[in-house]
Write a structure and sequence with these properties.
The protein is mainly beta. It has one domain: Beta Barrel (OB fold (Dihydrolipoamide Acetyltransferase, E2P)). It has one helix and six strands, in the order αββββββ. The chain has a five-stranded mixed barrel. Strand 5 and strand 6 form a beta hairpin.
Length: about 110
């Protein structure tokens, strides 16, 4: 039993020591979508507590289902929606060497 526990501890220690620095850590955010474009899967999002600066923060929406989140769907033939909607999202950032990292919404839950 002691050998099994020691092996388990060594395995956990090894995994911690060789943590990949390129692994994305998700961030859970709650806030408001000010603008969405269903055809480009892009939203402008402001997290709660973030003061309005006039600068838009864009996220690419990646959905694991074929259904686009209902609160982001445009009206009729217009894929753009500009009313404010409350959402919860889990995000990661990808840095491709540009001016700003690409923000990706991995999951999005409509709150309204």
């Amino acid at each position: 039993m002691a050998l099994l526990l020691a092996g388990g501890a060594a395995g956990v220690g090894t995994l911690w020591a060789v943590h990949d620095p390129h692994t994305a850590k998700p961030e859970h955010l709650v806030g408001v979508v000010d603008w969405s474009n269903q055809s480009t899967n892009t939203i402008s999002f402001r997290a709660d507590g973030q003061p309005p600066t006039g600068e838009q923060v864009f996220y690419r929406v990646v959905s694991s289902t074929t259904d686009y989140p209902g609160c982001l769907v445009g009206n009729g033939s217009d894929p753009v929606r500009q009313d404010k909607r409350r959402v919860e999202l889990d995000t990661v950032r990808a840095d491709y060497g540009g001016k700003q990292p690409v923000r990706i919404a991995m999951s999005l839950l409509c709150k309204d």
